[in-house]
Amino acid sequence: MIWLAIAVGAALGAMLRFATDRYLIAHKGPGFPYGTLVVNLAGSLILGLLTGLLLGAAGGSAGGWELVSAFLGTGFCGALTTFSGFVSQVLDMSINPSHWKGTAYALGSVIAGFALATAGYALTV
Q1: Angle of the 83-95 helix axis to the 99-124 helix axis, nearest 10
Q2: What is the value of pTM for the model shown?
């Protein structure tokens, strides 16, 4: 059952990542990886919320919530977020003339991702 939860979550997360990227390219243009930024930050918030909810509901341990964790954490967020895409985009922006853009994107993503994960966790405990 856990494998099915992961597969369904991953299918939904991947489709949302694709749709988000296409939507933002159509509305913002291809000059900056807004799609990757949005899905990675959303995934950070979701994982922070999930961690707080699971630990709170389970009294300090995630035991008993394996299906929820597998579906949302491993499946959905695992497919929604994209570290390899992020790294590739940072490298591409760093090689191009505007080196600051890659650095700003990398630092902003890490700092904002951590802040959103922390906020999500804090909202649930």
Answers
A1: 150
A2: 0.86
Task: Domain ranges for the chain, please list them.
Answer: 2-124
pLDDT at residue number 6: 96
Q: How far apart are CA 73 and CA 6, in angstroms?
A: 9
- Alpha-helix residue ranges (DSSP H) falling in 1-125: 2-28, 34-57, 66-68, 78-80, 83-95, 99-124
Terminus-to-terminus CA distance in the chain, angstroms? 28
Query: 83, exposed or middle or buried, with CB in 10 Å at 0-12, 13-18, 19+?
Result: exposed
CB environment 40-74: b (16+ within 10 A), e (fewer): bbbbbbbbbbbbbbbbeeeeeebeebeebbbbbbb
Question: Residue 61 gets which letter from DSSP?
Answer: S
CA atoms within 13 A on the CB side of 113: 19
Q: For 91-122, how does the pLDDT look when each residue is reduced to its tens digit (9 = 90+)?
A: 988 887 777 889 999 999 999 999 999 999 99
